[in-house]
Amino acid sequence: MPPGLRGHSSGEGLSRSGSPEGGGPARRRTATLLIVVAALAVGAAGAALLSSGLPKALLRFLPGRAGARLVIVGVDGADWNVIDPLLSHGQLPNLSRLIERGARGRLYSLQPMLSPVLWTTVATGVRADKHGIVDFVAVSSASGDVVPVTSDLRRSPALWNILSEAGITVGVTAWWATYPAERVRGYVVSDRIAYQLFGVKPDDDPEGKTYPPGLFADIRRFMAAPSEIGAEQLSPYLGPGTAGRPPGAEEREIIEQLKAAIASAQTYRSIGSALSRRFSPDVEMVYFQNTDTISHLMMRYREPLLPGVDPVLARRFAPAVDESYREADRFLGEVVERAGDGADIIVCSDHGFRTGVDRPVSADSRIDKGKAAEWHRKYGVLVMAGPHVRRGAEVTEASLLDIAPTALALLGQPVPTSMEGRALVEAIDADFLKAHPIRAGPQPEWPEAPEVRSGTSGHDRALIEKLIALGYLTQDSLNARNNRGIMLMNRGEFPEAIAEFEAALAAGPDQAGILANLGRCQWLAGQPALAKATLGRALRLAPDSREAANLLGNISMSLGEMDEAERLFRKALEIEPEYTDAHNSLGILYENQSRWQDALAEYRRVVEVDPDYAEGYNNIGNVLRKMGRGGEAESWYRKALETDPLFAGTYNNLALVLQERGELAEAERLYTRALELAPREPRTHNNLGSLHLQRGRTEQALEEFKTAARLDPEYAEARNSLGVAYGKLGQPDEEIGAYREALRLNPSYPDARYNLGLALLRRGDAAGGRSEMERVLRIAPSHAPTLLSLTSLLLAEGDAAGAERLARRAVTAAPASGAARAALGQAMAASGDRGGARRELARALELDPSLSGAREALQSLNGER
Predict the structure, then answer these.
(1) pLDDT in tens, 572-611
(2) Which domains does the chain have, with CATH numbers?
(3) CA 540: distance to chain centroid?
(4) What pTM was estimated for this model as a whole?
C-alpha cells in the first residue's frame, strides 16, 4: 500500500475495511418438509410451525442444549461516545445492569457501512461478498427494474434458518432485508411493516410482510402512523421552541421526520412485545433503528455547534439524540425482562456515529441531503450478559462477523466452517465452555440467489424514489457495483475491483465518488499515472471532494512531488478542517522530509480530533523512534494497540523497538501477530527475517526475505536482505546479484550499495568495493557504516589524516556510536595524537564495553602491553 493511506509510512515501520403462503422465496418450495413433535408447538400458532422449507444440508445441525434462551438486540448506529456519558449520569439503567453483570467491548464494522449489508453480516456470520446483500436495491437483469433488496437475494443462511432446522424456535422482528418473510420455526416480522428510514408510508398489503402470513392481520392494530404521535411523545426529544414566531419550514420538516421515526419504533416495539409473549421463542432477534435515524437527523445540532448550524434549531433539537438512546434503553429493558433471568443477551450495533469535533462539515448528516455514511464510525458497541457470560470481561477484538458464531456457541450449536468470524470465548463462562466446547459444523448448502423479480408495486416504486435520494445511492443502483468494488479492493483483488468500478462508471460516468474509489484502486494496483488522471477528473466533478484531494496528494508524495502533495493536503483541509486522514497524510509528508516537529504536530492533531484513530498514535511512535527516542515510541505504540488491537502495523513497529533493545522473543511474537492480521505485508516478513538472522536462523530468514520479495516485486529492501542472508550462507554470487537487483529497483539505496561494496571487497575486488562506497557518500554523506569502512581502508593504506577526517564525520553522523568513537581514536593514534586517542577510545568503551579492539588499543597506548 502506498504511503499516506491508512497503511504504512516510510521505512520499515508501518503506519497505516418460499412458499406462496409464507411469503418465502420460491427457490425453497421444493425443500424437505419436516414434521416436528407436538412438544415444539408454541401457543395458538403452533400448527404453523410444523413445516420447514430449508435445504436438507441444514438438517446436519444437532439439537441445542435444553432450555437454552438467547436474545440478540440490534441497536443501529449505537456509539460508546454517546453511551458512556449517559451511563455516567445514570440515564441508561438497563444497559448499565447488563454491563455490570456481563462483558462489554467495541465491535468492528466493515465496509461498505450500509445497514442492509451490515445487519445481514451480523445474521449470517459472513461478509457481503458471500451473503450477497451489497446495497439497498437490486436490478433485474431481465427487465432492468430496480427493487428494494429482498431476503431471497441472500446467498447464505441466517441464524433464523440454521436454528429453525436445529429444532430451536426463533422470533425475528424488524431485521434488515427480511422481506419477504422466510418460513421459520417461529415468526418473522419483516422490515417492511414500518419501513420508516426514508419516510415511506406503510401499506395494508400483507404479502410477504410476516411469517406465519396470518400474523399480519393480528399485528395490524399495533401499526402506529406518524400522525398519531402527539406532543407528549415528541416533547422528550425537543428543547425550547422558537418564541414569538411559528416554526419555519426546516423545523416542521424535521419534526415530521421525527414523528415517523417515533411511530416506527413504537410499532415494532409493540409488535415485538406481543409476539414474544405469545410465542416464547428460544431465540429472539429484535432491531431498534432510531438511534441511527435520529442521529442522522439531529447529530449536527449537538455541541459543539458545527459551522452553518442555526443556533435556534440547535436548542430545539439538541436533546433528540440522547433521548433516542434513552428510548432504546427502555426498549432493551422490556426485552430483557420478558426473556427472563435464564436468557443470555447480546446487544450490538452495526457501526458507530461521529459525535464530536470529528463530525464532517462538508457532508450533511441527514439521509436525504448528502453523504450520510461519512458520519459513520468503524467502531460499534457490544454488550453481553447472562448466566453463561463471563462477568467483567473486556472484549477487545470483536467484529460483526463474530456475533453469529458466538450466538451458536451459547446455544450449544456447532459453528459452520463457512462463517468468517469466531465465537467470542473471552466473554463466555469457562465452566460453560468446558461443558459445551465449541464445535466446527458442516458448511450449510444454500441455493443460488434467483433473478430479481420483475415488476414493482406502487409501494416499491415509492420506496425506490426515497432510496435514490439517499447519499449512499445513485441512479440505477450504480452503488451496488461500487460496493462490490470496495469489497474486492479491501481484499486486494485490484483487477476485479477496477472492473466493478469501471462497469458502474459506464452506466454513470460522472459519479465523483466512484471515480475516487477507482483512482484509489488504480494506485494500490501500481498504476499511479492512471490513478492521478482518474482522481483529477473526480476533483473537477466535485471540487469539494476531500477524499480525491487527499488521494491525489498521496500519489504526488509517492512520486516525490512534495510541494504539490502539500498543496493538495491543505486543499483537503480547507474543505474539511478536521479531516483526520488529510492531517495524517500531511504528517507522513513531513516525516518523509525529516521535519519531525511538524510531523508530530499533525499526528497529535489526528488523535485529538479522533482519539480512536490508532494510526495517529502509531505514527507518533514512528517519528520518535526515528529521533532515537525508542522508549517514548514504545508507549505510543502500546497506546495504538490499546486503541485498535487489530492494527497490524503497530505490532510490527513495536517489535522493531524490542528487537533493537534485544528482547528478541517478544519481538518475534509481535511480528507473528502482525502477520496473522496482515499475512501479505512484505515489510513485516522482511523484519521477521532480520530477527531470524539476528538469532542465527539464516535459512528461516532467507525464506522470509523471499516471501517479502515475492509479495512486492518492487521492494528493494527485501533484495538487500536476501543479499545479507546469501552472504552469511557463503553464496557470494547470489549475494552480489541480490544487491545489484536492489539497486536496480532503487539506485539511491545507500545500504544496498554499501553492502555491495563490502561483498566486492571480500571477493578481492578492492577497486570495485571502494568505488561503491564512495558512491554511497555521494548519495548519503553521513552514512556512518560507509564512513567507518573507508576509515579502516585509509588506515590500512597508511593515510592517517584522511582516516581521521572520515572518522570525525562518522562521529558527527552517529555521536552515540561506540564504533565511530573507536575508529576516531585509532585514527588519532596513527596521526600521533595519543592524548586525543585515549579520550576517544575511553569514550567508545563507555558507549559500548564489548569493543575489544578499542580496549586493546587503549591498553597499548597506556603501556599495559
Answers:
(1) 999 999 999 999 999 999 999 999 999 999 999 999 999 9
(2) 32-109+160-375 (no CATH), 784-865 (1.25.40.10)
(3) 29
(4) 0.82
